[in-house]
Amino acid sequence: MSPRATATLFGHAEAEASLARAFHSGRLAHAWLFCGPPGIGKATLAWRFARWVLAGGPHAKPPLHVPPEDVVFRRVAAGAHADVLELAPQAEPGKRRIIKVEEVRAARHFLALTAAEGGWRVVLVDGAEAMEAASANTILKTLEEPPPRTVLILVTDAPGRLLPTIRSRCRRLDLFPLEEGDMAACLASLLPETSEADRAALMELAEGAPGRALELAEGQGVELAKLARAVLESLPDAAGAHALADRIAGRDAALAFPAFFALLVRQLTQSVREAARGGAMPGWLATRPLAAWAEAASALTRQAQEAERLSLDRRQAVLVAMETLRGR
């Protein structure tokens, strides 16, 4: 389910309360910057806040709650509410995902209009770090001269990639990975048919990010994590590398390929970090200097990103990754 249509938010109670207090104080900031790691619920909170503002900011428990049967909820979920607009990065083959200046200009015009329903107007920018330079400069004009009764919500995993002038004109709200109890409740609710053992494994892999856990569950993340660990413990020979490439770049590659690389890099970097702190060092890690393994992790990340962005042969990318791990 998309964040736009998600009714329940797990964790982030203090963030919700802070937003509700700001609204009811009568001094609501016109621009907000929601920051935090991927998959922890930033977009879900942003849409929850947007719905609640459009509904008039009703007093509710939990804060920001708008029932799914409410007409505002249903219209926002269906993309049919006239007073809310979303901007998000668009992908083109062979190009990086960006938010184009034409879209931001349209949003600027949208905010300048009178609210169709006499209340607030909301623009939600998901993946704000993907704005191209012209887009960032255009949105800055709105931040400098905000129309009345408008809210601009910027959602980002990488606030450092935004212009300092944009950051300085937004009220920043930092979100953090969910606590174990909230994660357990979230996965029990969203993955009721998954075994308790697999949910526990997903919790460990996702590190407090429900969105990440759901991606891993959909892409057989628990099995891929075991496979990534096995690859590091015993680097496959040429035949094994080809078999691995066939498996990772097969018919489910859209999910398996990025998940496998992410889990492989995660296992590698965690092992390097633990060893650098004087912790246990697995046998495979002792075969090369830690700096070399750190460089390999960076190379693997770069290879996976390039393969996805440029639509390269995923099978070949897996084979190259195995050569990287061998130090060749």
UniProtKB/TrEMBL annotation:
- What class does this enzyme belong to in the EC scheme? transferase
Gene3D superfamilies documented for this protein: P-loop containing nucleotide triphosphate hydrolases (3.40.50.300)
The source's superkingdom equals Bacteria
| Residue ranges constituting the AAA+ ATPase domain according to the UniProt record | 28-178
Keyword Nucleotidyltransferase included in the entry's annotation: yes
Q: GO cellular component annotations, sorted alphabetically?
A: DNA polymerase III complex
Q: Which UniProt keywords apply?
A: Nucleotidyltransferase, Transferase
A GO molecular-function annotation: DNA-directed DNA polymerase activity
> Which GO biological process annotations does it have?
DNA-templated DNA replication
Q: What is its EC number?
A: 2.7.7.7
Q: What is this protein called?
A: DNA polymerase-3 subunit delta
Q: Which organism is it from?
A: Roseococcus suduntuyensis
